[in-house]
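Hi V.,

Quick status before I head out on leave. The structure for the redesign project is tokenized and pasted below; the design run finished overnight.
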């Protein structure tokens, strides 16, 4: 099996439409946009180096997302849950309100 043939992607028509929508999105998550662009380029038969140059993903990351797409489809392009305690975010407005009332 030639190098690069192991992960040749054949996206369904529905997946291709969704991937194109995500890749062109200006309001969605940038990470998802890059991943969708990488999958579309891979479906065109582009090598990892070309995908990396076009999307800004490293070749390792491009390979990872291509593999995850092959394993799980569109759902594989989403971030996995992180381990550990969720970050605690204090909003500046709330903090300023509490400070002005004398509370910390």
């Amino acid at each position: 099996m030639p190098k690069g043939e192991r992960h040749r992607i054949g996206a369904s028509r529905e997946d291709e439409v969704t991937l194109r929508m995500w890749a062109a999105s200006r309001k969605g998550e940038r990470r998802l946009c890059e991943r969708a662009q990488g999958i579309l380029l891979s479906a065109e038969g582009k090598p990892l180096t070309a995908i990396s140059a076009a999307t800004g993903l490293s070749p390792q990351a491009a390979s990872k997302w291509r593999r995850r797409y092959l394993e799980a489809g569109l759902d594989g392009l989403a971030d996995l849950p992180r381990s550990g305690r969720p970050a605690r975010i204090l909003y500046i407005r709330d903090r300023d309100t509490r400070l002005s009332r004398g509370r910390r």
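Above is the designed sequence. Helices lie at 13-24, 30-43, 48-55, 59-72, 92-100.

G. will cover questions while I'm gone.

Best,
W.
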